[in-house]
Amino acid sequence: MSLDAIPIQVVHTTPPGEPGLTGNAPPLLRELLEQVERLLETGVPSAIDLSALPLTPADMDWLRNALGPGEIDVTLDANGESTLSETGCPGVWWITHRNEQGAVTSQFLEVTFVPELVKAHPQDVAMGRETLERLLADL
Amino acid sequence: MQGPLIDTLARQGVTRRTFLKYCATLASMMALPPAAGRAMAEAMAAVRRPSVIWLPFQECTGCTESITRSHSPTIEGMIFDMISLDYQETLMAAAGHQAEEARQNAMKANAGKYLLIVDGSIPLGQNGAYSCIGGRSNVDILKEAAGGAAAVIAVGTCASYGGIPKANPNPTGAVPVSDIVKDKPIVNIPGCPPIPVVMTGVLAHYLTFGSLPELDDKGRPKSFFGETIHDRCYRRPFYDQGKFAKTFDDEGARRGWCLFELGCKGPVTHNACATVKWNGGTSWPVESGHGCLGCSEPDFWDGGGFYKALSAPADPLKFAAAASVVGAAVGVGVSFANRAKKNKAKATHETITVADLEK
């Protein structure tokens, strides 16, 4: 049975005139600025754990709109889909992890040139080398 | 487990990125810095499996159900595979004398090193006769098993604080683990049932750092129980704006307003439901329209009614006015209002039930 079959509709939309903004999102821009400066000066990446902050869906939307869309979207299919999207500010990545049911399990803003998850681990690359060697041996 | 965990995972079809992603999420839930996920993944891949003995006492098996039926069995189950679960009555294949023998063997072989998990409270009435396993009382078994344990993890509100068995009038004389075990570190993971990932998180912390996580004054891991349900509730902005649902089917309820006036115990309950949620992150009590019962707090069963607002008089007529004055004294107001109601009912020959008084 689908949930639509239940006649009672729960309305979560905030009443008109109240966008649900808590004011918790704007200060994050300043923190991001500091992290971007650190990345440029020292090359050290950093991250903000969005799911650990009291942000409403409206706050999240505001932050996403403020940062704007970027050029790169990476989709990771690992025990549920994850998206790693560069925002309109290069070096600031919006990372969303989902479980197999599609629910968001954690969200981060990572300030880095390339997120660690995107890079292949040397041990995995070594396994790839073995695969290639096997392919060549079978030729 | 042979070889590094990452190889074991790979054999079971779990890639490095899947494991890293899981550890990132786990680190986030444990309020560790974002970079800790990678450290956890590296550390957990290298550890030796600790022996774990799990003793069930006066319990309903709900805690075991909660943990073993978690929605993403692949990885949560794998953290479970990283321990050597040497005794768990409900899950183990052995029974009777064989099971008891397995426990004795594990205790001897890993003396001083094993983790002891307990779910359920311990009855002390009638010399502990209310709950026995293999002819021995729970309190006797607990004392023996705790003697050789490195640490004790009390899973569920019963083991942590006595829970429902200890509820007034406590017929079996039930007590929590901490009343019996005094000389070992104890972690309480309360909840009725507790959230599966809290359990996994404590184990992951032990495997990663070789120590138990930091605890609050009630023995709970601060990372999961550091804040109240109310602190992290997505309906909190409505509380701040003074917008409350007055009944379970009014306009406010439909709009998802705050459930404080309907008895939500969120403001005094420390747990991670609001952030971690339930059933694989699907929803949680407040999101499905019901207030928090406060199940992770001591004596929640005797808290004076699940549908009574925390600090507002129970008289519905005075409700709207009083609710805005948060922090008003309850006790006198409630009993006075109820007495008045009862007297009025008597005078008009109305029948009155306990349910009426709860309104």
Q: What is the CATH class of the largest domain in chain B?
A: Alpha Beta
What integer is the average pLDDT of chain A? Answer: 86
Radius of gyration of chain B: 23 Å
The largest sheet of chain B is: 5 strands, parallel
* Total helical segments of chain A: 3
What order do the strands of the largest sheet of chain B run in, or round the barrel if closed? 2-1-3-7-9
> How many beta-strand segments of chain B?
9
Description:
The complex is a heterodimer of chains A (139) and B (359). Chain A is α+β, with helices and mostly antiparallel strands and 139 residues long. Chain A has one domain (13-138): HupH hydrogenase expression protein, C-terminal domain (Ribosomal Protein S8, Chain: A, domain 1), CATH 3.30.1370.140. Helices cover 32% and strands 25% of the residues of chain A. Chain A has helices at residues 26-42, 57-67, 122-138; strands at residues 46-49, 69-77, 81-87, 92-98, 104-111. In chain A, strands 1-5-4-3-2 form a five-stranded antiparallel beta sheet. In chain A, strand 3 and strand 4 (92-98) form a beta hairpin. The longest helix of chain A is centred in the N-terminal third of the chain and has 17 residues, at 26-42. The mean pLDDT of chain A is 86. By secondary structure, chain B is of the alpha/beta class. Chain B has two domains: 49-225, NADH:ubiquinone oxidoreductase-like, 20kDa subunit (Rossmann fold, 3-Layer(aba) Sandwich); 236-358, Cytochrome-c3 Hydrogenase, Chain A, domain 2. Helix content of chain B is 40%, strand content 10%. Chain B contains 17 helices and nine strands. Chain B has helices at residues 5-11, 16-29, 36-46, 62-68, 73-81, 96-109, 138-147, 156-161, 177-180, 196-209, 222-225, 236-240, 251-254, 273-276, 316-323, 331-347, 354-358, and strands spanning 51-56, 84-88, 114-119, 122-123, 132-133, 136-137, 149-155, 174-175, 186-189. In chain B, the strands form three sheets. In chain B, strands 2-1-3-7-9 form a five-stranded parallel beta sheet. In chain B, helix 2 packs across helix 3 (36-46) and helix 3 crosses helix 10. The model of chain B is unreliable at 313-335 (pLDDT under 50). At the A-B interface, strand 1 and strand 5 of A face helix 2 of B.
